[in-house]
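HUMAN: Can I see a protein plus its fold?

ASSISTANT:
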Amino acid sequence: MPNPRIKADVRHQTKERACFRCEYCLSPETYSLTKFSIEHILPLSRSGNNSPDNLALSCQECNNLKSVQTEAVDPSTNESVPLFHPRQHQWAEHFCWSEDKLTMLGLTPTGRATIERLHLNRIGVVNLRSLLLLAHKHPPPTERQ
């Protein structure tokens, strides 16, 4: 297993690339009560590594819920599908915002399974989106996600 220590410059590049937002729920780190994690998309325990292509910025809740998972069940088809991969997938291909901009909707099996597995519409993140919407800081630009 590779050394889990990620170099400071790679950590900073990962945060900048993510625009300092969780790459799953899109919450901004600026408004979080806890520090975000640099997450291994393919976990070290599953032959992942510390290369920038395998790293994503993740809020603590998304990181905990994802854990070592790389797949989840699509609630519409009941089939196991890959989770959203921030380096390989485009956000807008798998997700969109509800009309009120507070909840994420899955457009594909991967989008639906990721929303379900990571609880991307959990009450805390929806409340944060509501406040950020009032402050004109939500929704974030999604072309980079």
